[in-house]
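Why does residue order matter? Because the sequence determines the fold. Keep that principle in mind as you read this record.
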Amino acid sequence: MLMSKVFLGDVAVEHKETCKGSKDGYPVVGLEHLVPEEITLTTWDEGSDNTFTKMFRKGDVLFGRRRAYLKKAAVAPFDGICSGDITVIEAKPDRILPELLPFIIQNDALFDFAVGKSAGSLSPRVKWEHLKNYEFELPDMDKQKELAELLWAIDDTKKAYQKLISATDELVKSRFMEQFASYIGDETKCSTIENVCTLFADGDWIESKDQSDEGIRLIQTGNVGNGVYLDKGERARFIDEPTFDRLHCTEVLPNDILISRLPDPVGRACVIPKGLGKAITAVDCSIVRLKEMILPEFFVAYTLTSLYASQIGTSVTGSTRKRISRKNLGQVIFPVPSLDIQQQFASFVRQIDKSKFELEQALSELTATYKRIIAENLG
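Structure:
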């Protein structure tokens, strides 16, 4: 197999095209539509009500140049318009197989390079003039074709696992609605979130200068997934003990609930598991420490339902970046069945979560194989 060292700029160019006419009919992609470490684009907006003018074409790679550590890059499945914080990258087909380019861009080594070249403190961005200097090994065309077929097959398998994982959450939602939808509207069977808590508080404002590489875990809004338990989400961050003491931070405890007051979506929640160690959470998360009358798994199962989402939807504020205040969050109505009934439902949730965990383990192993193939052949 022939290999050669090349720069990204040798095999790809920044696609610079502006939409000068009507934007009607073009899908719109913002940074929020790019999912960390996902190579395929699955969500976008329709309609021309936006200020974006940057065009992309089907097959281009959309690279999130702001906060590159979030690892956002995906292949465009159609022509469209995107945010200025997305760099549009187009393959040079005589130098690289276009189907392989997304895997060169959506990989840890390139993202690490991009982070190192990013400028700005609050919202660091990387420019194409720096990104194009990323150097990697490129095999001959025959090997490129073989690698592209293998990596896309692995990506298809990953998607199948992800669908099964999503189906476990849907099962929890549907069972909850079956049993408890009728409670909403009956004041004798409901309460508000703030009234079922012993602690209902916001997390702490931790500036970048106060963060460290180890110590007390700082749980970001990105760690609050759409399942029942804490997700890995964004990269782990920490603060040290002196900072914790100086800022009088609120420690989150096992079985506390964290609710993100930012998208996507607003109001998503998770349970803090045992064994996490000493941890705090960011200011845009609310900490819910429940009274004994409510079980954590039952509470979070409710936050997965449309009953909860509809209440959140009527309480959010902001035009470009939706959010909910802790005050409004506290007024959300919550069903309160007996503890026996909650225990039965919580047992069901734990069984489902066990199946979900096994699927996630298989997905994690597949992802590790996928990354190893990229590192060994395109490093």
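The longest helix spans residues 141-180.
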